[in-house]
């Protein structure tokens, strides 16, 4: 804010020599009153001094644990903690810089106000003296009031100036403390980077026996709790939106399982499903929801500090322990509790370990115990429904990390020893959590499959075995990604790996005159893949099911083919847009493509265009019984390039759309499903045909597959010397009932002919 001052306009205000005494005095009084009003208003605004004071207390509270943890003698801090501390200090420095600028401006402003008060107080015109004229004495009361107000404004301004000056000094001192801490952290990070495998502490045979002052267990635990707690609090407060999204996913999972259990309790479904028993989910899946959320936490917060991951894994272990309490045997439960105890011990040890020999030997002992437990754990792991190809690599990594931790500890690289030991035990226990995660999702999916199949839902139209296998593969991939993510976070390489991948993908590359990046190529491939998968399976969303040969005729429209075509076109357009190919380059590609069409892609384009014509012309529908050349069957699918036919023998025939459009196609069920069928048989020439006709009509009328309003026709087809061939023509309801009708009719007619003593020739 600009320094307040009462400017005088020489063109608008008369000089003192041109004014009478009352005019000059009135002008001075008005000027003084306006100045005092502005000074008081400025002092009332305060420029947020109380907010700055409260904020400074918060910053000092944030910085104090960091300083304490860094100043602890011989305390070894890992790179992840140093980076987290640096982030806290950077935020504090930003706030302090803003406060310094604000207070500096306010201090200068207050100094100007103080000078203005002094100037007005020394103005002789505003002073009342004994020798003043009678005219001036008339304004004595106003002048005394101005004098009192000036004194009050001066006191307030001076007090406020002192407060601002002290606060500015405190902010500057805290600013210097933060910059010193940043310098110390930068030096540690630089030293750690230059000697990644170098010695930062004495070799174990030269390690000191006792702790130095300030490095006792209580001091180390206190500094670790304060420092890591501050990191954790800062991270949680700055990433609250990620946890809201994770909470919504947890609520969605809970509602999904709860509603399926409620549906399964309905009387009509309960009779079909029977008693539902699952190992990992219940009608109120609170524990299952917690397991899901804790496993997915690293996926939503990949930049989380090590302490956050450690606490998340600890809560996951407690949740899994609650589940194991009723499912594991006593010996297995004791073994599991031993693993949980080892996890807690290693995490606490890493927080307090320093270069004293007894602490380093204790860490080596824990690494040796981890190696023994890991070997025994491998056998138990295979019984937890975890694939061997996943369990074996994780076990080998676990063993390797513990061995490296021992070696780094021996040769004085304690920070790496801490990181490797924590990463090893977290990776091992996370496998159990992920195994529980897979089982929870599998049980929930199995419940959905059973409820949906019995209520004619989505899963009633899917191949259940294939669906289970697909979801199992997807869950395995997600489990591997989660494990690798936690692994990289604990090794403090997640940020570097992500930055490297982003750099590789976003780097602009040149191929001839075309500029592109791997990002664009990846987006192009993903969009094309998703569009292809969607157009293949979109029919499920519209109630499409597998076409089978059965007595029931079911027609389905060809709108799905049109929807598939639209999905493919939109997918290609989106993929081209995501690829970043300029339009001028795209025209070149289309020109080359047209040449390719002219040379060797004629059939493909012909089939594609024929598919579009079939969609709009609709010469047949899915479910129609058609005949093309020597092939007969039921239309199973109408695709963009080709269509499928299911033959009575069970084979699937793929026919190009061009052949369907250009060939002679017979559709037996286009307008209706009625079929005129014929039955031929010969009888002796002396047979009573009138009586036989009545018997045939009677037996035909008993069939449920005939059209009642169209009576059968019984005709003499041929006459021989000793026989007559009869043709029975009957209209039946659909083509799929022909074989069943003939079988039923002839089975009933044969005993009647025997009763009439009519021999079939």
SS elements, strand count: 10
Shape: elongated
Average predicted local confidence, pLDDT: 75
Please state the structural category: alpha+beta
Biggest sheet descriptor: 5 strands, antiparallel
Order of strands, main sheet, comes to: 6-5-4-3-7
Radius of gyration: 44 Å
**What is the beta-strand fraction?**
5-15%
Distance between the termini: 120 Å
Tally of contiguous helical segments = 23
Describe this structure in words.
With 761 residues, this protein is α+β, with helices and mostly antiparallel strands. Helix content is 66%, strand content 8%. The chain has 23 helices and 10 strands. The strands form 3 sheets. A 5-stranded antiparallel β-sheet has the order 6-5-4-3-7. A hairpin with a 3-residue loop joins strand 9 and strand 10. The longest helix is centred in the first third of the chain and has 55 residues. The protein is elongated and about 150 Å long.
Give descriptors for this structure.
5-stranded antiparallel sheet, alpha+beta, 761 residues, 66% helix, disordered N terminus
Q: Which helices and strands occur, and which strands form pairs?
A:
Elements: H1 21-45, H2 49-71, H3 79-121, H4 134-137, H5 140-194, H6 217-238, H7 240-264, H8 267-273, H9 286-300, H10 306-324, H11 330-352, H12 357-382, H13 388-410, H14 414-454, H15 464-490, H16 494-506, E1 508-511, E2 514-517, H17 518-537, H18 559-579, H19 583-600, H20 602-617, E3 625-628, E4 631-638, E5 642-646, E6 652-656, H21 657-662, E7 665-667, E8 675-684, H22 689-701, E9 713-719, E10 723-732, H23 738-755
Antiparallel strand pairs: 1-2, 3-4, 3-7, 4-5, 5-6, 8-10, 9-10
